[in-house]
Amino acid sequence: MRSRVGCILVAMMAAAATAPAAAAPDPPADGGGVARLIVAGARDEVARGTVYDLTMGYYVTTWKDGTRTAHKVYPGGDIDPAMGVCVEVPIRAFRRAGIDLQALVHDDMARAPAAYGVAGRRLDTNIDHRRVANLFVFFKRRAKVLPTAADGAAALGAWKPGDVVIWQLTGSGRTDHVGLVSDRRDPASGRPLVIHNYPMPGHAAEADVLTAWKIAGHFRYGFD
């Protein structure tokens, strides 16, 4: 959404081409239970048929727990749950596990603005956590950073349900798409499926797309 582009516009281009800062708290350490909740939360997006929002609009997070309020909500705020872009998958999935990326990303940006390239700028809790580039920095700083290789059984074994994958859609160096690793695998390729939201097919989906684009980051947050 950077300069009204970010995850939305770059994804469309790729499809066509083929307060004082507080310390970020440690994530819950409930291991597999957290991972299962993350995957379940991501799969909720698929079951709901969350539509990919092509408007490139700026939204105030006036929704909470599926209900629209009359005011901005922070923490725990959301946009209309019927829609979203790629970032809504991890934001809503992690929230299902009790992990609020809206608050965590904001707190970390406030603590280390230079790391995010926002020194001297005003932070915005409506949108900052909804930028793939910011999620990439947050996970690099706060999550377990894992190998990005996805070729062969040994490499694929490192990808666990609930892991975060961030891609470069065009391979140009910009991180512009994000998804969550599923607990299901494609029977033909052996690759784990990924739950993501993308202009094609235009809604949240669970698909064999792990290697569809250049993998920029592989992260595990909230569980081992």
In short:
This protein has helices spanning 6-17, 31-48, 88-96, 101-111, 113-116, 132-142, 153-156; strands spanning 51-52, 63-64, 67-68, 83-84, 144-145, 164-168, 177-185, 192-197, 204-207, 214-220. It is α+β, with helices and mostly antiparallel strands and 224 residues long. A hairpin with a 6-residue loop joins strand 7 and strand 8.
Report on the structure:
This protein has 224 residues and is an alpha+beta fold. It has helices at residues 6-17, 31-48, 88-96, 101-111, 113-116, 132-142, 153-156, and strands at residues 51-52, 63-64, 67-68, 83-84, 144-145, 164-168, 177-185, 192-197, 204-207, 214-220. Strand 2 and strand 3 (67-68) form a beta hairpin. Helix 2 (31-48) crosses helix 3 (88-96).
Please tag this protein with its features.
single chain, 224 residues, alpha+beta, 6-stranded antiparallel β-sheet, two-stranded parallel sheet, 10 strands, 31% helix, disordered N terminus
Distance between termini? 31 Å
Q: Structural class of the secondary elements?
A: alpha+beta
Low-confidence stretches are 1-6, 8-29
Strand content: 15-25%
Shape: globular
- Which strand order does the major sheet show? 5-10-6-7-8-9
Number of helices: 7
Q: What does the main sheet amount to?
A: 6 strands, antiparallel
Q: List the helices and strands in order.
A: HHEEEEHHHHEHEEEEE
Total beta-strand segments: 10
Average pLDDT score = 89
